[in-house]
Write a structure and sequence with these properties.
single chain, 94 residues, mainly alpha, 434 Repressor (Amino-terminal Domain)
Length: 94
């Protein structure tokens, strides 16, 4: 049995692999949502509640791990008080 405590656990390896698979647009969207949320001084959980989205799903969006539907993008934008277009970074911002 391998007792090396520095070796990553299987779940940690899977999570790291998922992060590496995140696409640039999803990552840029997530970073923009996070910046808008933090700029308004609200928690991730409060934004999720306002947008009627599960808090763990909101976290996945902010980390660029999810590809949210148009309906969810609209709900997030509405909760943040912006347009859906404002959720996407402008050229050169990502």
């Amino acid at each position: 049995m391998d007792t090396d405590s520095t070796r990553p656990k299987p779940r940690a390896e899977a999570t790291a692999a998922k992060r590496r698979q995140a696409r640039p647009l999803k990552v840029a969207l997530g970073l923009r949502v996070r910046a808008l949320r933090q700029g308004r001084g609200i928690s991730q959980e409060a934004l999720a509640d306002e947008a009627l989205i599960h808090r763990s799903y909101m976290g996945d969006i902010e980390r660029g791990m999810r590809n949210p539907s148009l309906e969810n993008l609209y709900a997030i934008a509405t909760a943040l008080g912006v347009t859906v277009g404002e959720l996407f970074p402008r050229e050169g911002q990502h």
